[in-house]
Structure formats: C-alpha cells, structure tokens
Amino acid sequence: MHDLQRLAPIDFDGPAQFEIRNLQYRYPNGQQALRGVDLSVAAGDRIALLGQNGSGKSTLVKHLNGLLPVQQGALLYQGQPLVGEPLQRARLEIGLLFQDPDDQLFCSTLYDDVSFGPLNQGVSLAGMEPLVRQALAAVGLEELLYKASHHLSFGQKKRAALACLLAMKPQVLILDEPTANLDPGQENILVELLRNYTGTLICITHDLLFAYELCQRAVVLDQGQVHHDYSMAELVADPPSMREHGLDFSFRLAGLANHKLPPQQAAVAAPEAQLVDAVAAAETTAVVELADYSYRYADGTQALNGITFALRAGESVAIVGENGAGKTTLLNCLMGIYSGVGTHLFAGHLLGKQQRRLLWRKVGMVFQDPADQLFCASCAEEVAFGPRQLGLPKDEVIRRVDAALERVRLGGYQDRVPLHLSGGERKRLAIATVLSMDPELLILDEPTAGLDPQGEELLLEILRQLPQTRILVTHDPFLVAELTQRTLVLHRGKVLQSYSTAEFLADQNQQSLNLLALSYKSDCSREILELQHRHEHIHQHEHFHEHLHRHGELVHSHPHQHEHEHEHVFTHSHVADSTEHCHSPRGRFHEHPHPDHEEQEHSHEHED
Amino acid sequence: MHISDGVLPIGVVIGSGIASLALAAWSVRRTDSEDLPKVAVVTASFFVTSLIHVPLGPTSVHLLIPGLVGILLGPSSFLAILLGLLLQSLLFQFGGLTALGANALMMGVPALLCGLLFNKLRGSTQKQHVIVGGLVGGGGTLLSAALLALLLFSGGEDFLGVAKLALVAHLPVFLIEGLISAFTISFLYRVKPELLNQRFSALQQG
Amino acid sequence: MVEGQIIQLPLVLLLAALLLLALLSLLAVKVLKSAFVGKQTAQKEPDWSVPVVDADAEGTSLFHRWDVRFKLVALLGFAFLVVATRSPEAAMIALLLSFSTVLVAQQPVYRSLKRLLAMSGFLGMFLLVMPLTVVTHPEDILLVFSGLEFLPFNLRGLQLALAIVGKACAVALLMEPLLATASLARTVEGLTRLGVPEKVAQMILLAHRYIFVFLEEARRMKTGMQVRGFKPRTSTETLQVMGNFLGMLFVRSFERTHRVYAAMQSRGYRGRFPAPFYFKVTAGDWLHAGVWLLLGIGLLVFDRLGAA
After folding, report:
1. For residues A81 and A86, what is the distance between their CA atoms, to the nearest angstrom?
2. Given this model, what pLDDT does residue C200 score?
3. Which of A71, A109, A414, C256 holds its CA 20 to 30 A away from the CA of A428?
4. Residues whose CB is less than 8 angstroms from the CB of residue C166 and which lie 6 or more positions away in sequence, other chains included
5. Sorting pLDDT into bands at 50, 70 and 90, what band is A273?
6. CATH of the domain spanning A18-248
7. Quick one: which H or E segment has residue B172?
8. For chain C, which chains pass the contact test of at least 3 CB pairs under 8 Å?
C-alpha cells in the first residue's frame, strides 16, 4: 500500500503557468516513460523534480518546452497548448539547461552562442553587445567573450550555457542535473546565480542538499507518475517515503555528522596520526611512491610541481582539490599514460619510461564517465578485454569475468549490451572491467557522479568490500569520509596538505580550508537533521489511503479518507525549544498497516 | 589519400567541381531539411575517425571509410563527405580547395554506392550484415582508389605510372578498411541497430 | 617506342646526387626543428590534435582589413588561375607571390612551412615517380645511369612534377592569408553573402565546433583502452577493437546530434541562424581584389604564351 499525495501544497491565485493533466508518453521503442502526470506550476514556483533514474523526470521536462509532443493528456503553458506559434513563443520564454554544456554551446564563439537566443527573440544587433556582455559578466566570463567554447573548462562551459539562457531573460528556467561534474567552488557560484533568479525554477537533481537550498517545492516522480508533491521541508522530514523513491540520503548526513571533530580534538589527533604513519611506513613498503615529481604539458603549463607522496598497501587515500589543481594529470602519471620528471616507484622498484608503460598491468583506473571506458558489444567481452590483453588463458579469463561481474552485483549480465544498461549499472560494469585485471592499486575518479542516491549507496557498499589499495578523486566530502583514511590536498599542481581524513574533514568544517565548499551544504545538512528529529506518540489521525475494504457485499480498493486511532512513528520538528509536537500538514497522510481495519466494514463518501 | 592542388588539368578541376556540386545539391534534397544540422554534427565524428591511424607493419595508415559513411548516412553521405573534405582543407590548410570537387567525387560516389548496396544486400541476420558490411566497406575504398587513379590518369598518359602506384598503395588499406567496416557493423548491429537504417534520408522517414 | 635524347651518366653521379639530396633534406629538417623549438615540443604520441583555423584572426595587416567576400573571390579566383597554368616557371612565380602574401599577412612562416611538410608525402611521390614513368617523347632528354639502363630518368617528367609541386605549394600557402586572417564565423558568413546557401554555411560551423568535442571524446576513449592494456598492432584483434571504437564514436555522435538539435530548438531555432555580422565595403577592397585577379590572369597569359 502506498499513500499517494496528490494535492498541491502551495496555494496560488490566478491561472497556473503550466497545467499538466494526465500526461502520458511512450517512446518509439515502446518504453512507457510517463503514465499520467498531473501537475500545476505557478509562476515563481521553485520546484525540485526528484526521483530515481528512469522515473521520467527528463521526459517530463522535455514536454515543458515542446521538445516532445504531447501524445496523450494535456499540457498548457499560460493557458495554451504547446503547438505552432505559441510553442515558438514559449521556447523563447523557457530556458532549458542541458546536462552536458557541449550540447548547448554549438556556435564558434561564446558571443555567437549567447546572442543566438536573443537574436531569435528579435533583439536588434545594436542592442546585442551590451546584452551579451551583461549575461557573461553575470556568470563571471566576460573576459572570454570571443573565445571558442572548446577552450573553456567544464565549469566555465556550464556557466556559459547558463549565460546563454539568462541573456534571453527567461520566465521559466529548467535545469537538468545542474551540479553534475562541477567542483564545489563552481557549484557555489551556480547556487548564488540561481538564488538571485526570480522566475519559475524547475530543477532535476539527485543532489538533495542543492535542491533543499534552492527549491521550496518537491515533486517526486516514480515510474512516470507524480507520487509526492509537497514542500521541500516535508520531503526531507520523511525518510520512509524518500527511501521508497531511492532518495534517502540520510546515510550521507549521518556520515558527515560522525566526522565532525571539535577543533581541539583534531589538534590532538594530528601528531598521533603522524606517529602511526611513521610506524606503519617502516613496516610495509609503499605501493606507489612519488618524490619531487613534476609534469609539464606540451604547451608549457606546469600541471604538477614537485609532488611527493607515498601510498602503503591496503591504504585508501583521497585526492581533493579544485578543478585544474592537477588531479587528473596526477592520475594519468600514476597510470603511466603521462611520463613526468622525478622519482616514481612502484612496489619499491624505480620506474623508467619503459616500465611506466607497463603500469596498466598493476594499476586499474575507473573513469568518471563510464562511456569513455566501455566500447564492447557485450558485458562479458567488456570485462574480458583487460585479462585478454594480459595474455591469460581462456578459462582463467572466463573465471575472472564471472567473478568480477559477481563482485559488482552484475552476475548474469554476461550477454547484456553495456550501452543499454542504466547509469549505475554501467558504472559498476566499468569497475568490473578493472577488477578482472586484478590490480594492486585501484584509482577511482568521481565514482558516484551522476548516480541517484540508491545507486550511490550500492556502489559504496561494493567499494567498501574491495581489498585493493585505493586512490579516490572526488569533490564529495561524504565519499572522502566513507572510503579513505588519508587525504591529499592538491592545489595548483602542488601538495598543499597530506594528513588523516579526520583532520581534513575537521578543516573543512572549520572552513579554514574550505576546499569542498561545505558552507551551504553543511548548513543544509544541519537543518535537515533537525527536521528529521523523530519519536513516537499517539494521535488521532485522519487518513487518506488506499486499501481493500468492504461496504456490505462490495469489496473494492481506492484512495479514501477516514479517521481512526493508533500509534505512529512521527518525524517532525519542535518549534524553537518548545516540547509541543508540531506536525507538518502532511503528517495526516502516511503509510501504516491496517491489521483489522481492512476486514471491518466501513463507510465513507464516494465522489462518483 | 587526397589529390592536392595543381595535379589535375583545369578542365577536370572544373568538371569535377560542377559534378560534385550537382551531387551535393541532390544529396541536400534527399536529406530532411530538419536533419541538416544533425548531419553536420555526425560529419564531425567522421572527421575525427579519419584522423585515426591504424598500424600497418612499420608504418601506419589513416582511415578513409567512405563505405561506412555511406552505410550510416545513405543519400546524405555525399553532403557529409563534401563537408568533411572542406573542413579538412580549412583546418589543415594543405590547400586542396581547387581539388575539392575531385576529392569529393572520389570519396562521395563510392559512399553513395556503398549505402545503396548495403541497403539492398544486408539481409536480416547479423552474419549477413557483417559480411555485406565488410565487402561494401572494403569495396568502397577500392572504388575510391580506382577513381583516384582515373582522375590522376586524366592528366594524360604521362600520369599512368603515378595512377598505377596510387592504386597499388591502396590495396592493403582496402583490406584494413573492409575488416574494420565489418567489425563496426557487427558492433552497431548488436548495440544500436537503428543506426544502420540511414535515418537522415528523406524518403525513409516517410 | 620513341627514343629521346639520351645522356649517359656514370652511376657515381646518381649516388652523389642522392647523397646531396639526403644531406640537404637532413639540413632542412634540422633548420625546421630548431625553428619549432619553443613553439612546440616534440610529441611522441601520434598527434591527433587539430589545428585552429583562425589562429590569428585579430590582426591589422592588409589581409585582416580586407572584406572577407572580396578576399574569398580574389584569392580563390587567383588559386584557380594558378592551377590552370602548366609550366614550372609560372608555378614558381605563383609560389613566390603566395609566399609574399604570407609575409604581408603577418602569418608565422613556420606554420606555413609545417603545412607544406604535411603535403610532402603526396608531392614527393610525384617528384620521384613522374621522371621514371612518363612516356618518352622524341624531344625529351633522358638521363641514363650506367648499371641502371632499364630506368631512364626523364627530365620532362621532372619538369611536370616540379610544376605540380609548385602549384600545390602556391595554393597551400594562400590558405593562411585567406583563412587565418578573419574568424571562421566571419569567413563563412562571407561565403553565404556570396551565394553559398545559409544551411550549408551553418553546417560548416556546426561540424567545425563538434570536431573538437568528438576529438576530446575519442581521446578519452583511447586513454580508456590504453589503461586496460590496448596497444595498436598489425592484427585482426586490433582491427576489431578499432571497429568497436568507431562504432562507439558513431553511437555517441548520433546521440549527441539529437541533444544538440534539441538545445537549438529550445532557444528558438527555426531553421536558420541569425546573422551577427555587418559588412562594409571600401574602394580599397575592390582595388585589392582587382590587383589579385589581374596578377592571376597575367600569370596564365605568361604561361600560355611562354609555352607557345
């Protein structure tokens, strides 16, 4: 049984900006993506569109500016269906930010890209330059006006894409996973920009902290239907329903809270940790050791500058730093793809150029985007690729393929096509392709990028069980806390800090070195934790729910409302310091078993 | 291998230019006008594949793949190839602008034929697709080489030696491209078979 | 078979000539390399990078200030007139003219030389093969080296080859002043003003933009294969992996086309790009273009009269 919350919580006057009724959509390949979506959006709403991967969020959003035609049901924008002339007009008022900014920057220079929309709106050439400058200045890219987009970094591209939309002064802004692949610094800039935006905001995201910061209303999609539509605060205060939709991120909050060391404690811990380090270092030789290692790109950029660090067997190290700090370059050097200057030891052996080229046999790397790593027509071939290159006998290859797939919970996927798998499955497959080579050192680059919280939790579970020595590159403080003991902070190609993860996290919380830009996130976490304060008590409840019930001879099932009394676990907040229980309005609507209730005959009003 | 400026007699330069313009116009007409930007983006990926080097003994060859372009784009392939060649001469600036027409014919005509043949012969099983794809892919390259030789020979009998050499030099490439085409078709057949349906063709969309 | 005028030469001379040629090219390579130092360090990997078309779009030379439409008509017209010539002399004059434009347009000479180097394979074949394979006419001069009687070296073939090389290089050298002295968007806009359909112009710009995106994708995929131990060899296995690689690249590019098109539509695209440029024609533009076309015609006349 599932209680469906169908009422829009925010009352608004006047006509809705978007009015969606019973919207259904089936893709040409037969996949039913939307199964009757009902949604009203008021001008000025700030909506987080949530749900598991594949729940229909992107499909719904593509309807909002007419990229997909309405097959069944109705969608009205300002009272008109999106076809013909109204559609063209609507597109000029609705800005849609794509996940990959390269899709959106299709002109030769930023100037052309930003002016594309306004020119279609009919802005005159004379008024264009100040408009473009203003839009780019708003996202901090004014000096790149005439640059071609392929010279920009990912974060810059993302902001440029946003500038393209802002220049059109949109009434509605729709964002598809805006924080994916952004470093925390860039994310903060984005949050600032969006906070100041006054129009309607609709935001698809898995990042609940980001959504919590920017949105007031949460719409949860599940299998192509709206399952919840309530305020953001109510959503986060309701872990059971979040879990049901794969949105529960409480595990992240708990993780972060545990690592909150008071400053004094951290200070005491530091010398101790170093002592332990020193003792351990004496006992085992390092798996990898770099000393005074530097790398310079062909164009003269000094990407790594005098890096010195060692990694012992079984240890897990996080490498953090802003985009462009040299993390990826460092990984490429550790993999032997780049060859820099300086000492590079692997398992105690000094590596020359020749040996560096053979590092792939010992070091496995999982890329941020699995698409860059998967290129075979079946999962079995994909996983077997590495072992085959190692020259292993056939039956050993098969054994390793099966074991690796089993390990990442993809047993039985041997004949599936990698390209047809979901994002989370592809990620795990990419890990399997590396595990099958039995590496001594495993490098993970942003392993949870693009995963929904459920996928993230599963991946974490798998990663925790791996015995390999690990290097983790991430912007996510939670992953750092969960998976590593030591943290290496890179800044402009240099090692800024190398200490225990606990110390690093303490640093982050004090914001003395706010590399992961935790400020808004930790504020959000704290608020949410308070909202999730939960305990039991008894209340008289009015229930709105769906279950089998009997009216005389008639047995049927439909959502209905009636009152009865029983015990509930409530998640709720206490206003200020009062002990009074203040339930959010939707406390009335929730799941609970009906042991006797379903057999009892009862009456209630039927609408039709 | 492309013909550079100054090799062909001016009559052939102009004639091939006009012929390829006519073919390009036909190709544009056969493409859904909505799909032209899409063809442009796909062309970029063909451009990138043409930069890939495949080792061949001590040296390496880069891919031409007129056959694959034809198989994937059908009637739009001529347009894509003309565009790709234009970009090549713009970006690498080896010149070749005056020989653009000749080069487009050399690559584009085989592409069109390959697309047509693949569509006619491909059958329904994976095996058929792969065999036909390989033969057509290799055949496309062979035909390109033959056209190259023919164009060179148009300079007069003095050019017979060069034409022969160009033909012979393409023989190993023919083998490599045939095999690669077969493998690519096999991959696409299993992973995304709808790409083999020449989707940008105006008539197919009906 | 018609016999030409045969000049017998000892084999030693051939060896000496080859040695001299080898030394010269070695020297040339040395000089070029030293010219490149600082500009670019040598790359060990096969270089997949694509040069930038409009590297020096901001400049003040005569070519930068020239209206692109006139520049296109004049220089392309000149190029066609050059390829219409036949004699090596005319080709050499064209080569000199083109080279002077590189200097006037303030383009770095090393870049132009690099482009010529890239053509050397195809053109070298002509220089090597033509003298050995052309049909012998009665007035031809043949060099025959003792010991290599079966392989006469026809000087007329060398002349033909030299003319081809000269013309090819002349046109190639024109490319820099033609294309690098304005932004690509501007050049393409100029093309549309000259009658190239707008849709085609958009396609050029779009394809150009996405080359860089796909190159980056291809590079990352290549690294992904490398870290799992892939090394290209001459083998069917390599070809199979390459086939998969191409397939994947195509799949990704087709998927991207749809997203790009959706993004264009989302910002109000209705089948045409808005044009962001103004063009202003001055008398200088006309004059400049006229001079170039006259030079070309003069060259052609010289060529045909000289031959007659």
Report:
1. 7
2. 85
3. C256
4. B6, C88, C91, C92, C94, C95
5. very low
6. 3.40.50.300
7. helix B171-191
8. A, B
Length, in residues, of chain C: 308
Taking residue C75's Cβ as centre, other Cβ atoms within 10 Å add up to 25
CA nearest to A590, candidates A540, A524, A529, A544: A544
Q: Could you give the CA distance from residue A418 to residue A427 in angstroms, rounded to a whole number?
A: 10
Query: CA A161, CA A184: separation in Å to the nearest integer?
Result: 18
Interface residue of A149, A382, A419, A426 to substitute, partner B, most B CBs within 10 Å: A419
Q: Where are the beta strands (DSSP E) in A126-204?
A: 172-176, 200-204
Q: Which of A538, A529, A534 is nearest to A572 (CA)?
A: A534
Q: Residue A24 corresponds to which tokens in the numbers above? A: 């259904």
Q: Model-level pTM?
A: 0.82
Determine the 3-state secondary structure of C303 from DSSP.
helix
Does the beta carbon of B48 lie under 8 angstroms from any beta carbon of chain A? no
Expressed as residue numbers, the domain containing B121 is: 10-197
Buried b (16+ CB within 10 A) or exposed e, C147-161: eeeeebbbbbbbbbb
Binning chain B into helix, strand and coil, the percentages to the nearest 5 are: 75, 5, 20
Q: Where in chain A is the domain with CATH 3.40.50.300?
A: 18-248
CB-CB neighbors (< 8 A) of C52 in chain A: 148
**What would the pLDDT profile of C134-173 be if each residue is shown by its tens digit?**
888 877 888 887 777 777 888 888 888 899 889 888 888 8
Strands A32-41 and A18-26: antiparallel
Residue A480 neighbours by CB under 8 Å, 6+ apart: A318, A320, A472, A474, A487, A501, A504, A505, A516
- Among partner residues C119, C238, C244, which is closest to B187 by beta-carbon distance? C244
Tokens of B126: 């994976």
How many residues belong to chain A? 608
- Per the structure block, which two tokens stand in for A246? 């794969």
* pLDDT, tens digit (0-9, with 9 covering 90-100), for A247-261: 666 656 654 544 444
pLDDT digits (tens, 9 = 90+) for A38-50: 999 988 899 999 8
Phi, psi of B107 (to 5 degrees): -95, -35
The ipTM is: 0.90
Residue type, A530: E
Q: Which amino acid is at A593?
A: P
Cα(A37)–Cα(A456) distance, integer angstroms = 27
- Rounded to the nearest integer, the mean pLDDT of chain C is 80
- Chain A environment of B187 (Cβ under 8 Å): 377
Three-state secondary-structure class, residue A449: coil
Sorted by where each begins, the domain ranges of chain C are: 198-266
Find tokens 């229930």 and name the residue. Answer: A543
Q: Is A419 near chain B, with CB under 8 Å?
A: yes
For B176, list phi and psi in degrees, rounded to 5: -60, -45
pLDDT digits (tens, 9 = 90+) for C29-69: 777 766 655 444 433 333 444 556 665 566 667 777 788 88
B46 in any annotated domain: yes
The CATH number covering residue B101 comes to 1.10.1760.20
Residues of B in contact with C252 (CB under 8 A): 45
In angstroms, the CA A43 to CA A93 distance is 12
Measured at the CA of A74, the angle between CA A72 and CA A76, to 5 degrees, comes to 150
- Please say whether the beta carbons of B78 and B46 come within 8 A: no
pLDDT mean over C207-211: 90
Listed as own residue / partner, the contacts of C44-50 with beta carbons closer than 8 Å and 24 or more positions apart are C46/B53, C46/B60, C48/B51, C48/B52, C48/C215, C48/C218, C48/C219, C49/C215, C50/B51, C50/B91, C50/B92, C50/C211, C50/C212, C50/C215
